[in-house]
Amino acid sequence: MKKVLVTGGSGFIGSHTVEALLEKGYEPIVIDNFSTGSRQNIAHLPVQCIEADVTQSEIIELIKQIAPDYIIHLAAQVSVAASVKDFLYDEQVNIKGSLHVIKAAAEAKVEKVVFASSAAVYGDPVYLPVDTDHRLQPGSPYGLTKLTVERYLEMSKSLYDLDYCILRYSNVYGPRQDALGEGGVVSIFSDKFAKGEAPFIFGDGEQTRDFIYVGDLAAANVAALTAQSNVCLNVSCGDSITVNELFQTMKRVTNSHLEPIYKSQRAGDIVHSTLANEKTKQVLAWEPVVSLQEGLTRTISYYEQELKA
Ligand SMILES: NC(=O)c1ccc[n+]([C@@H]2O[C@H](COP(=O)([O-])OP(=O)(O)OC[C@H]3O[C@@H](n4cnc5c(N)ncnc54)[C@H](O)[C@@H]3O)[C@@H](O)[C@H]2O)c1
C-alpha cells in the first residue's frame, strides 16, 4: 500500500483529500500543527495524525522517518487578507515551511510532491478564462509565496530529480471549511444563513469567482499522484458566477429573506476569476462532477447540522 503524507491534512481540503486517498486504497499520514485545522475534521477516519510544524527544521527528519511514497503539500497560511497584513508570517509558513517539505522530499526520494498552489499567482486576469500560460503577476504576498514555491519545485526537478505536480486551485468550497476566520465566501455565507444573520459582501458583489466543490478537488489531488509529472494545472470548474449571484442562489436554497450588507472592497482581492481546466481534465483524466446547486446544498446542510450540534 503506497504511503501518502498529507501536510495540513486536518484542514478543510486536507480532510477531504485524506478521505479520497483512503477510498483509493492509499495509506495517508497527516502532519498538521492545528493552527486552522482540527483533529475533529479527521476523527472519523482511520489515519495516523502527527502534530508537527512545517516551519520547524525538525520536520525534515520527521518526514524522512515517515518515508512516504508521495507528499501532498497543503499546509499553509491560507488567507490573502492575512498575508497583506503580515507578509512575514505568510513567508514563514508558505515559503520556509514549503522548502522544508521540498528538502525532505528530495532527501527521502519521494516519487512526487503535489503542491496546493492558487489562482492568486495570476493576479488580476488580462483575459478569461485564465489558462496556465497566463502572465503571473500576484497582487498579494500570498500569491507571491505560492509562486515562489512553484519555482522551487521546478528547480528541484532539475537539481534533485524531484518530481512534482503543481495544482492551482480556484475557489474551493464545501463542508468543514472554516467560516469564522478567513474562510471562503461560501462557508461564511452558509454559516450566516444557518444563523439567520445577513452576510457581508465586499465591494459591489459583481466580482466573479470559479467555485469548485472540495470533493472534486480532493479527487484531483489524488489523481495527480499517478498522472503525468512535472506539470502545472488549474483545478477549477471552468465557469464562474458573481458573488451577488452566489448570494441569490444560496438564498433560494435556504428559502431565506435575508439581504446582504455591502462593505468596501478588500486590498489584494482579485476582481474576476475563471480558470480554464481543459488541460487538467486531459492530464488527470478527471472532471468536476458536483454541480454548484448540489455542492451548495451539501455545504449549507453541513453548517445547519454544525449549528444544531
Ligand atoms: N480553500 C481554497 O479556496 C484554496 C484556494 C487555493 C489554494 N488553497 C490552498 O489549499 C491548501 C489547503 O487550504 P484549506 O483551504 O484546506 O485551508 P485550511 O486552513 O483548512 O488548511 C491548512 C492546514 O494547514 C495547517 N497548517 C497551517 N500552518 C501549518 C504549519 N506551520 N505546520 C503544519 N500545518 C500547518 C492548518 O492547521 C490546516 O490544517 C493551502 O495550501 C491553501 O493555500 C486553498
Question: What brief labels describe this structure?
Answer:
single chain; 309 residues; alpha/beta; 7-stranded parallel sheet; 10 helices; 41% helix; binds nicotinamide-adenine-dinucleotide
Structural overview:
With 309 residues, the chain is α/β, with parallel strands linked by helices. The protein contains 10 helices and 13 strands. The longest helix is centred in the N-terminal third of the chain and has 21 residues. The chain is globular and about 55 Å long. The two termini are 36 Å apart. The model has no long low-confidence stretch (mean pLDDT 95). It binds nicotinamide-adenine-dinucleotide.
Sequence-ordered SSE layout with sheet pairings:
Blueprint: E1 3-7, H1 12-23, E2 27-32, E3 48-51, H2 58-66, E4 70-73, H3 80-85, H4 87-107, E5 112-118, H5 141-160, E6 164-169, E7 171-173, H6 185-195, E8 200-202, E9 208-209, E10 211-213, H7 214-226, E11 231-235, E12 241-242, H8 243-254, E13 261-263, H9 278-284, H10 292-308
Helix pairs in contact: 1-7, 2-4, 4-5, 6-8, 6-10, 8-10
Bound molecules: nicotinamide-adenine-dinucleotide (NAD).
